[in-house]
Amino acid sequence: MFSKSKIHEPGPKAAQDSDKAKGPETSPIPARPAGDFTPSMPRTKPAASVLSSDLTVTGNIKTTGDIQVEGVVEGDIRAHLLTVGETATIRGEIIADDVVVNGRVVGRVRGLKVRLTSTARVEGDIIHKTIAIESGAHFEGSVQRQDDPLQSGQATPKLAPPAAPGTESDA
After folding, report:
1. 162 in a domain, yes or no?
2. Angle at 46 between CA 44 and CA 51, to 5 degrees
3. Which of 42, 99, 141, 154 is deepest in the core (most CB within 10 A)?
4. Average pLDDT of 45-55?
5. Which domain holds residue 127?
6. Which of 106, 99, 71 is nearest to 85 (CA)?
7. 123: nearest Cα among 81, 80, 154, 84
C-alpha cells in the first residue's frame, strides 16, 4: 500500500528508475562500434526477372540479379543466374555465373556453372568452369573449360610448343 520513496536514496538507482518510468520502448541498446552496422531486417534476395513467353526482346540485357527467359531474346544477356525456359529462344551470347538451359540458345555460352537439361538445344560454343549435360540435350559446338570463363577476352593463351633444337640463337 505505502512504499518508501526512492527519491532520497543515493546512487545510480535513481537513473535506473527514471529509465523504467519512460517505458520499455526506450530500453538501453548495447553500444556498437560505428563500423559494425547490421541492418534491422535481413537482406532478402530480389525475385528473378521473368520475360514471359509472349515477349520478344531485341537488344542486349544486363543485370546483376537473376533472370528467367521464357520468350525470345535477340541480343546478348549478362546476368548472375540465367534460366532459359523450355519455350525460350536466345540468339546471342550468354554470360552468367550460373546458366541453366531448358530451351534453345543460338550463340556462345560463358558461365562458371552451365547446365543443359534434357530439353536443351544449344548451337554454339560453351566456355565453362563446370558443366553438366543431361541425357537428351542437343548440343552442337565446342566445349572449353576455363578457370575464369566470364572474361570477355578470347580463350586463355596456350603455352607455345618448345622450339626445335638449333632454331634459337644464343648471343
Report:
1. no
2. 160
3. 99
4. 90
5. 50-140
6. 71
7. 84
